[in-house]
Description:
Distance between the termini: 73 Å
Shape: globular
CATH architecture of the largest domain: 3-Layer(aba) Sandwich
CATH topology of the largest domain: Rossmann fold
CATH superfamily of the largest domain: 5'-nuclease
Largest sheet: 6 strands, mixed
Strand content: 5-15%
Radius of gyration: 33 Å
Amino acid sequence: xxxxxxxxxxxxxxxxxxxxxxxxxxxxxxxxxxxxxxxxxxxxxxxxxxxxxxxxxxxxxxxxxxxxxxxxxxxxxxxxxxxxxxxxxxxxxxxxxxxxxxxxxxxxxxxxxxxxxxxxxxxxxxxxxxxxxxxxxxxxxxxxxxxxxxxxxxxxxxxxxxxxxxxxxxxxxxxxxxxxxxxxxxxxxxxxxxxxxxxxxxxxxxxxxxxxxxxxxxxxxxxxxxxxxxxxxxxxxxxxxxxxxxxxxxxxxxxxxxxxxxxxxxxxxxxxxxxxxxxxxxxxxxxxxxxxxxxxxxxxxxxxxxxxxxxxxxxxxxxxxxxxxxxxxxxxxxxxxxxxxxxxxxxxxxxxxxxxxxxxxxxxxxxxxxxxxxxxxxxxxxxxxxxxxxxxxxxxxxxxxxxxxxxxxxxxxxxxxxxxxxxxxxxxxxxxxxxxxxxxxxxxxxxxxxxxxxxxxxxxxxxxxxxxxxxxxxxxxxxxxxxxxxxxxxxxxxxxxxxxxxxxxxxxxxxxxxxxxxxxxxxxxxxxxxxxxxxxxxxxxxxxxxxxxxxxxxxxxxxxxxxxxxxxxxxxxxxxxxxxxxxxxxxxxxxxxxxxxxxxxxxxxxxxxxxxxxxxxxxxxxxxxxxxxxxxxxxxxxxxxxxxxxxxxxxxxxxxxxxxxxxxxxxxxxxxxxxxxxxxxxxxxxxxxxxxxxxxxxxxxxxxxxxxxxxxxxxxxxxxxxxxxxxxxxxxxxxxxxxxxxxxxxxxxxxxxxxxxxxxxxxxxxxxxxxxxxxxxxxxxxxxxxxxxxxxxxxxxxxxxxxxxxxxxxxxxxxxxxxxxxxxxxxxxxxxxxxxxxxxxxxxxxxxxxxxxxxxxxxxxxxxxxxxxxxxxxxxxxxxxxxxxxxxxxxxxxxxxxxxxxxxxxxxxxxxxxxxxxxxxxxxxxxxxxxxxxxxx
Length: 937
């Protein structure tokens, strides 16, 4: 049947044509070697399968086909025998995978098309023409430049590796002409990859200029004698026939009879048994698990899976070697690696520095990986020891007289455009650190992926996310350790002193492993339905956090020093008071052993408990129980709290002020918590106690620059609102929607009293229940919190569940979900893992159940504020405001803004934060501006 004569198909609205041949080679070169149990290589099959799976899940098309090349001999080789003649045969390991890839397509019940005498590109052109004649939209899944001639009003291309749509504008960016003149440009400039000759000496820019001036190839050749440049004129006159031949070679044929009608490409329902059988035969049992398919029985002889699940270690990939690691010491070599990186379109990327503090670290070197096993190290400021052999970790040796790095300004000038190139994806592990280091040098890094965050999104708290651990877990590979190259303890050296060859192997391996992990982890996002969490929450948050950390917070040094001195005097007074309460007998207040003897032997206070080591337990809970019985434990609690504030904040913060900025720069960990919350360290600004006057004084030390103010914006009762939303509690939803006092409403409904009769005592009890329920509070815990009998606390909880039965149903459903899957999900899809949910130990199991109940709530709140943080910078810029985000403390954001813009900034912040999620209850944000953090909060 001819493409142009086929009758219209009523259901044909959107046809997706996948360039299968291109996918095969990308998969083969992008993944490390893998073999199934019979020794057949399957890395290309696995990569192709995961890419096809992602496309099928993402696509809304009603017709889909995968198009393949049939053989090398086509009508083009008849026209020009040298066409593609220089291409080597495919690698031996790839040849047996060609038929398996076609089997993969059929296993998904997708049309698999090829035709003798024509290339895949011709078939794509023919099907695109047939579909557009029927009024359908066509998407070609490929980055092949030869297919750009097909782009038009109804036809677009999509590059899945770069997540990029290619339309007329992108074609013009590539060729300098519209899609309708791509063939003319290619006829002139030729194509070295396909051995299309073109016209000697004419590149894309010149070709585009000529076609733009003369309109088309035939007009140009007819008027070639008019061209002013003698050499160009003669070249075109001499090579007119070759230009026309080249045009015939690059122009896609779309007029052949189609091997299958377009109607045969209609999307069909998946047959799970067929797909499971194919995946099992290849050894892809982890994919079977991720797709929740029922695997066929294993064969009698056990086979080794070649791809690991999230909880099993993969076998070491064949050929994991450092032989192709390169040390880059000259600009020509660097240029070759940069060209290879641009060609690959995706690179593993890492930096080496001389410090863990990204704000103070110096860049020592950069490593790149363009494919598994192909990586390099580019030293920037290396001064290794003179001997390039064994390294003595003692005194620093004399300066080396050996090879020298490229001067830093030259290497960075070459690398900066690559690191900012939007067409090259930079994959790092904890890439936030690398971006910080390079930002200090004025070098942006974009676009990015982060294997640490990929692992965190996929596997949460089920294991750690360090590079070395993931290499062992997923690649079966042991990385060179930092201690092996830099030593340990007092003899440890900085990385710039490591011999260059050792530095090369260590650094290049990090980039190589990062790229391999990316190829393993990224496809899992789709299979495990975690794309949205990663792409809308975690990845776009990285540059926001980088900017926050770099901004830092200004600290009033004099105020802190005065506060520290005041705390010191008060600590001395408290110590004297405690000793007096001990009958004047001095002891070390910081010694649990001495304190235990004072409490339970000298003072003979009741309720003492001994630890496994035989010492008295003296934790805060013990002291709180003893406080009503004797004044000494209460004074000791005051002493401990003040001592912690002094050592952790007033003393430490002064030392942590960056001398270059005059500000404190905390570091946010993006992959450290179970629920998705950020955590802060060096210094930890999220745990400053604010329930005491002393704690609030610490916040008073954080101030705005002159002419600026600090803005604190805090979600009001966000976790309670999420409880009402996820549990579907109509009573709470109504109260929130009407803006009423939620704790008074709860007190009225639970205790059965009119709303106007709810006093502060009843409201306090209702508040304790409201917040306690989120954490699975027990009658014992509520009784201790409210200082009431357990029986009364139990009655309160039962009354609460009686009034709000939806929450008990939610809690039971959530615990069952955790027992079934090992995790629960937030309203936005994040997995919150619940280890211990099936523990035989009742206390451990109860703890895991409480964590499961709290997971969707606390995790959901973390997701919401992350959504707000991602959107806020752009919203401020759009509003023409100069405010910048400085800090996140769980449900609170802190910004610095010009005083004159405070009111406008607050309005934008409220709008973004309150609109960060669409819940069945409204989100409410309280915000204020002041000169210090404490005053604004």
